[in-house]
Amino acid sequence: MDRREFLKKAGVGTASGAAVALAAPAVHAQTTREMMIVSSWPRDFPGPGTGSQRLAERIEKLSEGRLAVKYFAAGERVGAFDVFDEVASGNAQAYTSADYYWKGKQPGFAYFTSVPFGLTYAEMDSWMKFGGGQQLWDELSDEYGIKPFASGNTGAQMAGWFNKEVNSIDDLNGLKMRIPGLGGDIMSKLGVAPVSLPASQSYEALVSGAIDAAEWIGPWNDYFLKYYEVAKYYYYPGMHEAASQLSMGVNKSWFMDLPEIDREIIEASCMIENAMTMAEFNHKSGIYLDKLINEHGVKVRGYSEEIIDAIGEAADEVFATTVEHSDLTRRIHESFVKARGELGRWMVLSDAGYTQQRNRVLGITA
Fold first, then answer.
1. CA pair distance 46, 133, nearest whole angstrom
2. 179 φ, ψ to 5°?
3. What is the CATH number of the domain that holds 133?
4. DSSP state of 197
5. From CA 188, how far away is CA 140, in angstroms rounded?
6. Is 185 among the domain residues?
7. 165-192 per-position pLDDT tens digit
8. For the segment 229-266, what is each residue's pLDDT rounded down to a tens digit?
9. What angle do CA 271, 99, 240 make, to 5 degrees?
10. SS3 212
11. How big is the CA angle at 280 (ends 276 and 282), to the nearest 5 degrees?
12. Which residues pair with 35 in a beta bridge?
């Protein structure tokens, strides 16, 4: 057999082998499953909304259409705070939201978004992946038939918008403020009346006087909600939310019935979006902070140490009550506190230590 004849026969054999190898996936690809995603975020809302839409598109693309995704923003199918029950009941396959909205069901959910004096994005990511956080979240969500995934993060948040200066605890007393989660419980101990509202309703509530203050996320998102039109004082730091982890909750029964490759695609898509959203927040928050200050006259103020210390004391009281809910809640809290101590000590030397000295040398200030 000469070389030309050998290559010809080899080519035929290779092509035949490829056809056989591709036959099974090609048949599998014809099986499609509807994946209805309901969201707590308004359509096209910068950050949580656009990130959720991007996540939905990525899942369908990577699955090559096996997962036929239908995405519904807040209010398009169910209300912003109804998405958990919609998925737990099986009426939809997944939600995108922030799990501290479900603390009324079980206070442990708050730890998987953010709690006062909580974890930064880097710390949260480490706890979730290597400190046991994901396993505890799985255990908690399993009680409701949900498989949870981290699918975004806002990073460190601002403390909120106020229609007057807040210099002391007395200035907080009696204020009605849009603030959810354990942060709302803590602010109530300082005399604030916490109100839980979807972001889309908080601006109107400020205009009408139904609330006196509101926290949302940070400069990028807050700019588009136009808080600056009704409240000129913008406070930091957001001790109530050091870095809020966003989530995708998937109906577990539906999820486990998927082929392994599609389960992996959903998980990988969430991991990608978790990093993408955080990078986008960091990139755009500085840009929009400049716009708020220079174009709209927003006055950035820092909470006094008196207020921060009071928030810390109130946090201890709230945590002491929270852990009494159940053994699982206590285990979540203890794991969280352990991670905060270990990671926090390292962050003092690493990220925090470096940026503090870098900014001092370069004269970078808020």
1. 27
2. -160, 115
3. 3.40.190.170
4. -
5. 26
6. no
7. 999 999 999 999 999 888 899 999 999 9
8. 999 999 999 998 999 999 999 999 999 999 999 999 99
9. 100
10. coil
11. 120
12. 69
Q: Which residue has the tokens 């352990």?
A: 338
Contact by Cβ (8 Å): 276, 54: yes
- Angle of helix 327-349 relative to helix 305-322, nearest 10 degrees? 150
Question: Looking up tokens 């921060």, which residue turns up?
Answer: 308
**8 Å CB contact between 301 and 105:** no
Cα 114 from Cα 124, distance rounded (Å): 9
Q: Please list the alpha-helical segments (H only) found in the chain.
A: 3-29, 48-62, 83-88, 121-130, 133-142, 169-172, 181-188, 199-208, 219-225, 252-256, 260-296, 305-322, 327-349, 351-362
Predicted local confidence at residue 196, as pLDDT: 86
Q: What confidence tens digit (pLDDT) does each residue in 342-353 have?
A: 999 999 999 999
Q: Is residue 238 part of a domain?
A: no
**Cis peptide bond N-terminal to 237, omega within 30:** yes
Q: Does residue 17 lie within any of the structural domains?
A: no
Burial of 38-54, coded b for 16+ CB within 10 Å and e otherwise, reads bbbbbeebbbbbebbbb
Pairing status of strand 233-236 against strand 160-162: antiparallel
